[in-house]
Amino acid sequence: MTETTPQQTQTTTSADTPLRETALAAEHEALGASFTDFGGWRMPLKYTSELTEHRAVRETAGLFDLSHMGEIRVAGPDAATYLNTALVGDLAKVKVGKAKYSLICTPDGGILDDLIGYRITEDEYLIVPNAGNRETVYAAMAERAAGFDVDVWDESEAISLIAVQGPKAEAIVSSLVRLDETTIVENLPYYAADTVTIGGEEILLARTGYTGEDGFEMFLRDDKAGALWRALLSLGEEHGLTPCGLACRDSLRLEAGMPLYGNELSTERVSFEAGLPVVSFSKEEDFVGRAALQQAKAEGRGKTTGQRLVGLKGLGRRAGRGGYPVLAAEGERAGQQIGVVTSGQPSPTLGHPIAMAYVDVEFTEPGTRLDIDVRGKAQPFEVVQLPFYRRER
Prior knowledge:
With 393 residues, this protein is of the alpha+beta class. The protein is built from ten helices and 19 strands. Among the domains are: 25-69 and 158-255, Probable tRNA modification gtpase trme, domain 1 (Gyrase A, domain 2, 2-Layer Sandwich), CATH 3.30.1360; 306-386, Aminomethyltransferase beta-barrel domains (Elongation Factor Tu (Ef-tu), domain 3, Beta Barrel), CATH 2.40.30.
């Protein structure tokens, strides 16, 4: 979900504004992490190597600091109705203890951000937007709350978010909770959340993830984050738990075909182009962007007209990167640009280059041969269904 592809940078923004740091900054320093500017935050890029960390998540487990993500609380008698007006999904149908992936859109249907909504109680939700979009999303949500009996507040500054992702995630998290709560961890469904106790502290435990693996996210107070991070590293050692940075998180989510805001998602795109079936036209509420999205659907945008997001499998060795042109390889338009890469790199798990790209709808059929212009030389790719990688259940 996060908003830019991580690259190693200095510890200030281009305007020399000091970067924000999470409550775990000292822990990352102690582990020898290299850092990156990510959405205005100084975040660990990697600790050892991207490949080592990527493989750890696929084979055992990885530990991530995601405290740069936003946490917006919504509470009140009109919480469900309000969210059904502010977001495109039907949050009113989400049961207590469950979560839903959704979008917040502009009036013209463009994607302002993608986010996850957790229903904590009947009248309370936790909304998690992307780091770089947090303030924009909060401002839009606060504005859209007018006329509803609901309170909307941003509690991001006080909350840390730690994730464990990988095949051993359940065993690691189970070893931390009270003995009588291990069944909560073991029985927690995908896209659900519950409260558990770790170290005498009550935390919100979610089972979502952004890597294509099983995994958990733990929301807790900033002043308790360091102790939890160290406890996870200690108890997870026997399971191969490895601290992981944002570099491998990006390669993991790309293999899993998960969109990244600022790459696959933006205000210039609508959900139908991105292949996200998250818009609920069946709900009663006149949500922001509804009319524009109904028109886009009627026009076949992303289906019969315009462009659609596809997966591209490299048939050679060179990878296409974000921004590289996608060319028709055959037919009347051979050699012409018909799209652009949004994300791309070699896949550590699959052993060949992969990419996601927006291409004209006539070129979106799986098996279609396309080229990516890699610095002036056409490289062969093939359209494939997403995701590139799917874990064994």
